[in-house]
Write a structure and sequence with these properties.
By secondary structure, the protein is mainly beta. Helix content is 15%, strand content 38%. The protein is built from 4 helices and 11 strands. The protein has a 5-stranded antiparallel sheet with strand order 4-5-3-6-7, with helices on one face. Strands 8-9-10-11 form a 4-stranded antiparallel sheet, with helices on one face. A two-stranded antiparallel sheet has the order 1-2. Residues 1-20 and 26-31 have low confidence and may be disordered.
């Protein structure tokens, strides 16, 4: 049995919240996320990673519809997350996304159709995504300095700080 919480429209001034239990079947039938006209869909996200991606890509700062689907059933992965964003692909930083998880598929949508599927790769450099924890690093002293990490071992997914060579495993 699942539950839905909602605030009645006639009691918006008060703090009354109504608890309505719903059988699982009704909840599944209510789930309807429409297609997008132009934008992108991030597919094959590891289950539970969608909120990190949402914040790291700064999707909360965009003025466009964003749908996050968590724990969707997947034949390949068992469970996965999906993010649908209705805005141009230019708003997406593929390097950050490739660093977070280079197995994610980016589907580019135009005129309600998938026009391109982008495969991600580990970026050679990432800027201001990883922060150096070495207290002797120049980035600890110079606050305005960008945190730059360079991919040094693609097989092991190891990045090193550009300034002090501190190691960071993706």
């Amino acid at each position: 049995m699942r539950s839905i919480f909602f605030m009645p429209s006639d009691d918006l001034a008060g703090d009354a919240v109504r608890h309505v239990p719903l059988p699982r079947k009704e909840v599944c039938e209510m789930l309807n996320i429409s297609g997008i006209h132009e934008g992108f869909v991030l597919d094959h996200i590891k289950a539970g990673m969608s909120m990190r991606i949402y914040h790291d890509l700064k999707l909360d700062r965009l003025d466009c519809p964003v749908a996050i689907i968590k724990n969707a059933r997947s034949n390949k992965m068992g469970k996965k997350d999906i993010i649908k964003v209705e805005c141009p692909i230019d708003a997406l930083d593929l390097d950050i996304l490739g660093y977070i998880d280079h197995h994610i598929t980016v589907n580019v949508i135009k005129d309600d159709k998938i026009v391109e599927k982008k495969k991600l790769h580990l970026p050679k450099e990432v800027h201001n995504v990883i922060f150096c924890k070495n207290p002797r690093c120049i980035t600890s002293i110079e606050q305005e300095l960008e945190h730059v990490f360079v991919l040094t071992d693609p097989k092991q997914e190891v990045y090193r700080c550009k300034y002090c060579e501190a190691k960071f495993k993706a």
